[in-house]
């Protein structure tokens, strides 16, 4: 018997990969005529009360009938929805239990909904190998539908198998293109290939599709607007990024992702007090380690050393609070240590351990950056080449590449990479961008 009444207290956020919106490099698009402006942001009513009522009803239902796999599937869907809205890892645990109970009551061959819920929850929990395997099984069972290939492509992406991800997303397009899920994945594909304009077009199309749905999902719309802000921030368009984050908050007030990103862009625009305020609001909702670390950096810049130290200590505490936290935040913690010159050997070992399974470009970057800080520049150089192989326009990747080249004594390459990082986004990070400028200044001396 599966009991769903008990709720875990701790609240935390799934990493930036998100639950349902990941993709891989697929298509490029030529320049197109100017697009009309985005629809104005409007508030959308929260359906939290209705969702929680449905959850309670379904929990009661499965407590009385343990073979009601349809109710379990609906429960899993509602739990995943609430996780996206709140960031609570509690809902991931509940969704996983619901999906497994569904498949125990009715096998996958006659229960594709339960298999899909299991794969989605595994993906959100960073169980990418299991998510891939279940997505492959789902694709065999439902070959004429596009949704198995969305999940399959997502999993291949995180595992660093970009050719297979490309194939999966190609099938997704052929079977069901023109959906919110397809467009957001194509946007991610474009970003990985350095095609920010194409990504923005896909996200704009996704936004129009999401707004046309009845009923419209405020979390989905806020997420897309936030993603539009992330695309703008990635190339240093701070004014547009700030507007997109604020649009997301009009639709979904206190949306934690937009709050934190608003803090980041305010810092980039020189408003450190305003940035601190936004990060503090985000952390009061969700104590995500990346938010906490960023707030610590801003405290440090402001001369609030004691408060900065407290935030840095909290990063470690959150990342190690549970086994699930350890899996979800492993990479974030390794990069945090590398950024702050802490526990270099342990950070490197952790990054390498994760990369044995999750061989995506950002995993390679984590190995490269931690290897450099652990005194292994040759290993760092090999890993950073893997991180740059897709042509992703990410200032941090080029910053890391520049610092690695500098450590190896290759000043020309170092200068090229550091200049490229700052050309892409001159204020990509409050502390690391300053380090990049200092390194460049040192090359000219």
What would you note in describing this structure?
This protein is mostly helical and 445 residues long. 70% of the residues lie in helices and 0% in strands. The chain contains 23 helices and no strands. It has helices spanning 48-64, 69-86, 89-105, 112-124, 128-141, 147-158, 162-176, 180-192, 196-212, 218-234, 238-251, 256-268, 272-285, 289-301, 305-319, 323-328, 330-339, 344-355, 361-373, 377-387, 395-407, 411-424, 432-443. Helix 2 packs antiparallel against helix 3 (89-105) and helix 2 packs parallel to helix 4. The chain is globular, with a radius of gyration of 22 Å.
Please give a handful of descriptors for the protein shown.
23 helices, mainly alpha, 0% strand, disordered N terminus, single chain, 445 residues, globular
Q: SSE order, as H and E? A: HHHHHHHHHHHHHHHHHHHHHHH
Structural class computed from helices and strand pairing: mainly alpha
Mean pLDDT score: 92
| Weakly predicted, low-confidence segments | 1-32
What would you report as the Rg, rounded to the nearest angstrom?
22 Å
Shape verdict: globular
Question: What is the CA-CA span between the terminal residues?
Answer: 70 Å
Largest sheet: none
In total, the number of strands is 0
The proportion of residues in beta strands is under 5%
Tally of individual helices: 23
Q: Indicate the percent of residues in helices.
A: over 70%
């Amino acid at each position: 018997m599966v009991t769903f009444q008990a709720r875990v207290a701790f609240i935390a956020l799934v990493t930036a990969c998100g639950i349902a919106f990941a993709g891989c490099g697929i298509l490029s698009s030529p320049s197109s005529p100017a697009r009309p402006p985005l629809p104005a942001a409007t508030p959308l009513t929260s359906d939290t009360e209705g969702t929680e009522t449905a959850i309670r009803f379904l929990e009661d239902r499965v407590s009385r009938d343990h073979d009601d796999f349809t109710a379990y599937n609906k429960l899993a869907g509602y739990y995943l929805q609430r996780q996206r809205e709140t960031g609570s890892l509690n809902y991931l645990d509940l969704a996983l239990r619901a999906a497994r109970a569904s498949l125990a009551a009715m096998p996958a061959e006659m229960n594709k909904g339960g298999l899909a819920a299991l794969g989605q929850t595994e993906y959100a929990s960073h169980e990418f190998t299991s998510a891939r395997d279940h997505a492959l099984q789902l694709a065999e069972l439902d070959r004429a539908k596009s949704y198995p290939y969305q999940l399959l492509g997502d999993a291949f992406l995180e595992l660093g198998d970009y050719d297979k991800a490309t194939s999966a997303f190609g099938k997704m397009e052929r079977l069901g293109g023109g959906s919110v899920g397809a467009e957001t994945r194509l946007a991610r594909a474009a970003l990985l290939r350095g095609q920010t304009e194409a990504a923005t077009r896909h996200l704009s199309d996704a936004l129009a599709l999401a707004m046309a749905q009845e009923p419209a999902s405020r979390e989905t719309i806020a997420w897309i607007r936030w993603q539009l802000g992330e695309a703008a921030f990635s190339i240093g368009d701070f004014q547009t990024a700030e507007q997109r984050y604020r649009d997301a908050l009009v639709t979904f007030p206190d949306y934690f992702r937009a709050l934190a990103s608003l803090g980041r862009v305010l810092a980039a625009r020189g408003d450190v007090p305003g940035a601190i305020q936004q990060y503090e609001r985000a952390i009061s909702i969700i104590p995500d380690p990346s938010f906490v670390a960023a707030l610590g950096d801003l405290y440090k810049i402001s001369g609030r050393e004691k408060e900065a130290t407290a935030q840095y200590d909290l990063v470690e505490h959150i990342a190690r609070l549970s086994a699930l936290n350890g899996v979800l935040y492993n990479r974030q913690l390794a990069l945090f240590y590398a950024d702050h010159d802490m526990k270099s050997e342990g950070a490197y070992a952790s990054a390498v351990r994760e990369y044995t399974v999750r061989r995506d470009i950002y995993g390679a970057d984590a190995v490269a950056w931690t290897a450099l800080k652990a005194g292994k520049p040759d290993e760092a150089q090999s890993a950073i080449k893997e991180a740059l192989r897709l042509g992703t326009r990410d200032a941090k990747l080029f910053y890391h590449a520049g610092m690695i080249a500098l450590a190896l004594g290759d000043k020309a390459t170092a200068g090229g990479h550091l200049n490229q990082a700052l050309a892409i986004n001159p204020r990509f990070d409050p502390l690391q961008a300053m380090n990049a400028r200092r390194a460049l200044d040192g090359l000219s001396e």
